[in-house]
Amino acid sequence: MASESIHGMWSSRLMFILAAAGSAVGLGNIWRFPYLAGENGGGVFVLVYVGCIFLIGVPIMSAEILLGRAGRQSPINTMRELAATSGASRLWQGVGWMGAIAGFMILSFYAVIAGWAISYIFQMGSGAFIGADADFAKSAFTSLTGNVWSVVGWHTLFMAITIFIAARGVGKGLETTVKYLMPALFVLLVVLVIYAAATSGHFMEGVSFLFSLNFEKFSWSAVLSAMGQAFFTLSLGMGAIMAYGAYMPKDISILGTATIIALLDTTVALMSGLIIFPLVFANGLESSAGPGLMFITLPLAFGQMPGGQIFGVIFFVLVTFAAITSSISLVEPAVAWVVEKMNTSRPVGALAVGGLAWFVGLGSAFSTNIWAGITIIGDMTFFDTMDYVANNIMLPLGGVLIALFTGWILDKKIVEDQMFADTTYYPLWRFLIRFIAPAAVMVVFIMTFI
Ligand code: PFF
């Protein structure tokens, strides 16, 4: 098997960690985690979420890295080749295909929300929110999302940035981006947590909201959301981490690296909660505001705080950086596949994939304006449907298949060869990947959908 990928390689372990953590840390941590925790009542949701991260997420992330590094190609071709060498059905290649489709579905709404975040950098910077009331904050959001031209404009800008970076390739594009944006992101996060702690006067309320357990809030649909969120936030189940694993040098421990990435990701999610909730409580606002939490409630809170204009700008720059380092991993599996399959250059692959994702994204961009009345499943718009189906169904399903393939199908020699540096925890990982991770996902599915 190849020892290097034709697409390029990460130059060190640190670069792989930054890239994979960059993929993991994104809108999922800053926008989605706090509002899901808010909607589902805080502590219990957080506990289930953290449990899913370490019992299901870390083993599956390790499996994805392992598969990627063993195959050294796009997830679609990696799955095909590994299934063939293990004497298994060609159908396993479907895992790669399903992942690529999930990637388009996720990117469709991801780029739209990231576009809103970019526009909020300017809205916060203009000072419009200083002293503003709740009606103003609401109407600022609805006039942005209700205007099809602004939404599509920002969405297009975000997609163009993603395509530009992907086109430059693994070394010059992806690695250079994460090398600068990830440390910047971390500094901004720390600055904002200190700001929330120092100025809100309600920091401990935020802490107790996230960490105190109220079991009345327990429900299986909350558990499904927590599990879906664990997959989404770690970028699992669709091949993003598999694609990145293909560029990982051979001598690096997989389990140790996956654990570090999961810890970084969880830390960022909790820090985001510790930025957002104290500001929300300090201003007597609702923690259960749903997806509008970051775009309506938070700007309103910043508007009431000392220095809120500048810290509001910092916050939305942070969100934008986090979204960029994730979206480049959402397109990577498909870009790598196009380059392999069509034998074309990165720019052509990035344009083809990014262009298609942009087009699918129009459906999500229209969901808050000209298609607002059109529902696909139940009362869910195109946007909501993409989010729900991709995160709660396709990612966990892809994750289970990856776990089953790695645990039961893949030639054991390949597994042990990749895990050579992980002998201590290898038996534990193997137990989790063969039994616990698939069973846990199945139980949550069954309990939610019966
Ligand atoms: N993990 C990203 C986030 O939390 O925002 C989203 C994501 C990126 C999901 C890449 C899936 C993926 F393959």
In short:
With about 450 residues, this protein is mainly α. It is about 75% helix and about 0% strand.
Q: How many extended strands?
A: 0
Distance between the termini: 44 Å
- Molecules bound to protein: 4-fluoro-L-phenylalanine
In the CATH hierarchy, the architecture is Orthogonal Bundle
Major sheet: none
Quote the average pLDDT.
94
CATH-derived topology:
Hydantoin permease
Q: What is the tally of helical segments?
A: 18
**What percentage of amino acids are in beta strands?**
under 5%
Radius of gyration: 21 Å
The number of domains: 1
SSE pattern, N- to C-terminal: HHHHHHHHHHHHHHHHHH
Description:
The protein is an all-alpha fold. It has one domain: Hydantoin permease (Orthogonal Bundle). About 75% of the residues lie in helices and about 0% in strands. The chain has 18 helices and no strands. The protein has helices at about 15-25, 25-40, 45-70, 75-85, 95-125, 135-145, 150-165, 170-200, 205-210, 220-235, 240-245, 255-280, 295-305, 310-340, 345-365, 380-410, 410-420, 425-450. Helix 1 (about 15-25) crosses helix 12 (about 255-280) and helix 13 runs antiparallel to helix 14. It starts with 12 loop residues before the first helix and ends with a helix. The mean pLDDT is about 95. The structure holds 4-fluoro-L-phenylalanine.
